[in-house]
Structures are given as C-alpha cells and as structure tokens.
Amino acid sequence: MAQDSLLKQPKAVWAVFFAGIIAFMGIGLVDPILPAIASKLHASQSQVTLLFTSYNAVMAVAMLITGVVSSRWGIKGTLLAGVITIALFSALGGFSNDIGTLVALRGGWGLGNALFVATALTAIVTLSNSGTAQAIILYEAAIGLGISVGPLLGGWLGAMSWRGPFLGVAVLMAAAFVFLLVMMPKQAGQASQKKTSLLEPFRAMKHRSLFVFGLTACLYNFGFFTLLAYAPFVLGLDEHGLGFVFLGWGILLAVTSVFMAPKLQRRFGTVKSMGAMLTLFALVLVVMGIWTDLQWVTIACVVFAGALLGNNNTLITTAVMNAAPVERSTASAAYSFLRFIGGAIAPFLAGKLAEWYNPHVPFLVGGAFVLASVVFIALNIKHVEHVDRVEAGH
Questions:
Q1: pTM
Q2: Which helix (H) or strand (E) holds 98?
Q3: CA-based nearest residue to 292, from 357, 343, 218, 225
Q4: Residue 84 CA to chain centroid, in angstroms?
C-alpha cells in the first residue's frame, strides 16, 4: 500500500525526480577522473580535491539564499536557473586548461547545484501527495540513481579525456532544462505571496533540533567527502575501474535509501538508526585507514559504505524536515548550509593530511569526525527524539 502511494505522484513530482537523477549524475561523473586531472594538469592531490572544496563552499553559502530566490522566482523558475547554471559552468570547465580555473568554475557549478538541490527537495515534499517520509524516499532515490549511474558514465567518458565528464554534464543538464520546462506545470513555477528574508535560515538555526542535525551532518560529511574525494587516489585503478567501484557504491546507496531506511526507521526509530549507521561508517573509515595499502579492502569498504550512506541520508533528511516548526525550504537551507561546510573543508584537508603524513591518516581523521557526530547527537538526544512522533502524527 505504501509502495502504491509512493508511485502515485503528480506529474510535477516526476518531472523533478527525473531532472534530479540527471543533476546528481554530475557528482559521480567527476569522481573517476580525479587522478587523471592531477596527472594532465600537473596538480597535487590537495589541489585536485579543491574541486570538491570550491563546489561545496559555494553551495553552502548559496543555500542561504535559495529560499529568497525561490520565494521570488517560484519553484520552477529556481530549478531552471539552477540547471542552466550547472550546464554553463560544467561546459566552461571542460574547456579550461589549468587547475585554478577549473576549481573556480566548480564553484559556479556549486551555485547552480545549490539552487537545484534545495528547491528540488522542497518541490518533491511540497508537491507530493504521499506524506513527507514517502516524498523524501523519492528524493533520495533520485540522488541514488544519479550518483550510481554517474561514475559509470564518468569512467567511460573520462577514459577518452578528462574533459569528457565535464562536457557530458553540460549536455545532460541541457536535457534536464528542456525536460523541466516541458513537463513541469506552470502553477508549480509561481512565486510565493510571502517573500522569504535572508535572515530566515539563521533564525531557523535557533531551533536546537535543526542545529543539532545540521552540525551532525557537517561532522558526518567530513567522512563522506573524504571517501568521495580522496579514495580515488589510493584505489590504484584507471577511470573505468573507478567508475565500476563507485557504481557499486552508488547502487547500494540508492537501494538502501529507498528500501532499507524506511524499515529501520519504523523498527528502531530515526535517531537510533542514524546513530547505528554513523557508527558503522566511522568503523569502515578506520578499516580503510589501517589497511589503505590493501586494494581489495579499500574497494570493499567503499562499496559497503554506500549502503550505510544511503540509509543515513534518508534518515537525516527525514529528521530535518520534521525537526523544527519552520517552512521546509527554510529548514532545508539552514541544514544544507551547515552540512556543506563539512563537505567544503574535508576534501582539501584529506589531500593535505596525505601530503603532510601518509595515505592512511585522511581516513582515520574522517572516521574520527564521523564518530564525533555520533557523540554529538547522543549528547543532544532530548532535543531531537521528537522527530519520530512528528512523522507518526503526519
């Protein structure tokens, strides 16, 4: 019955869903070519990881304005602006010739992604007719499908040239733009009567529950982006090999986010399930840190981590949507700002730690940050345990 209600969605929801798959392909497309970029552009590992740092840093700040923009341009207008911005900057990235330019252009890509990601979540939750939890499962499914297919396509295009995935993203984003323009109803694009203030996300952070989940995600993202941005350098694989490893990672992320996370949520509760997934993820990173030189161990850990991350992403996103009595777009903006700060610092820190010490240290430090997120949420349990009651009473 729940599955039926999940699939019976308005046309506008499916329009955002399919555009979301294409948009999230962009994350995984670039992953298999990180070592190739370092080689071709004569850049260090830490310089190449700046591609994730600039992307996440701009996205974190831009998340604060997404509510302001969407309240004036409407959901459809904001989604279209985000998609065309990604297409433009990824295309320019495909023609750049030095790492500094590429890092700057990835920042522009992050701006477009902020407009799309924050608005897509709000759009699916708002337009869905099956409740917040089911809508978030659909959103996470789009992320999972995009992230899982992206590396395979990125590995294939990257084997021809490191520029291929950047130009591939531009073409896919142009297709997403047309898809949204045609498929999404006009009424979904209307601006809100109430204009959102720039201060709204900061006011939302005064709600202790929302702040706790945001900071938890910030700490957890240290581990997530250490795995995503640094692991390709230690796996010792070519573009095709990296594409297949991260395909496995993405498939498990997609499957668990849709099918396993709701079951964990119902049986054990959101916060307890989240704590378990984060603890296991921290252990996986520690294992990667100890046995970094054993290729089969690091490959197995990357793939298995996809299952833990898929579960956790759905759990924490659901929790955020139910955490505080603020508009969903505002909650999403505040949470995403805090979350992507971790994603901005982690990649560059991982590259530098490897240069300063050895290839084992980035994973151990990433694991320590994830473990800190578990401790932090445990210390603030009384501020967040209400999220299951909110969803049950939806």
A1: 0.85
A2: none
A3: 357
A4: 19
Long-range contacts, stretch 348-353, CB < 8 angstroms, 24+ apart: 348/46, 348/49, 348/50, 348/52, 348/53, 349/222, 350/49, 350/225, 350/226, 350/229, 350/230, 351/44, 351/45, 351/46, 351/47, 351/48, 351/49, 351/229, 351/230, 352/46
Q: Please give the Cα distance from 303 to 243 (Å, whole number).
A: 12
Query: What number is the average pLDDT over the span 172-200?
Result: 71
Q: How many helices (H) and strands (E) does the chain have?
A: 17, 0
Residue 280: which residues within 8 A CB-CB, separation 6 or more?
A: 308
Residue 371 half-sphere exposure, CB side, CA atoms within 13 Å? 11
The helix/strand/coil state of 19 is helix
Instruction: Give the single-character DSSP code of 163.
Output: H
HSE-up of residue 2 (Cα within 13 Å, Cβ side)? 12
DSSP states of 343-393: HHHHHHHHHHHHHHT-TTHHHHHHHHHHHHHHHHHHHTHHHHTTHHHHHHT
pLDDT, tens only, 74-125: 888 888 999 999 999 999 999 999 999 999 999 999 899 888 887 887 788 7
Q: Which residue has the tokens 């004569």?
A: 42
CA 148, CA 29: separation in Å to the nearest integer? 9
Helix (H) / strand (E) element for 96: namely: none
Phi, psi of 306 (to 5 degrees): -55, -40
Contact 155, 216 (CB under 8 A): no
The helix/strand/coil state of 162 is: coil
- Is 304 buried (19+), middle (13-18) or exposed (0-12) by CB count in 10 A? middle
Alpha-carbon separation of residue 74 from 89, 172, 299 (angstroms):
23, 23, 43
- Residue type at 149 in one-letter notation: V
Nearest-angstrom CA–CA distance, 317 and 261: 11
Distance between CA atoms of residues 28 and 36, nearest Å: 15
The residues, any chain, with a CB within 8 Å of residue 132's CB and separated by 6 or more, are 125, 318, 321, 322, 391, 394
pLDDT in tens, 224-241: 999 988 999 999 898 889
For residue 41, give the DSSP letter.
T
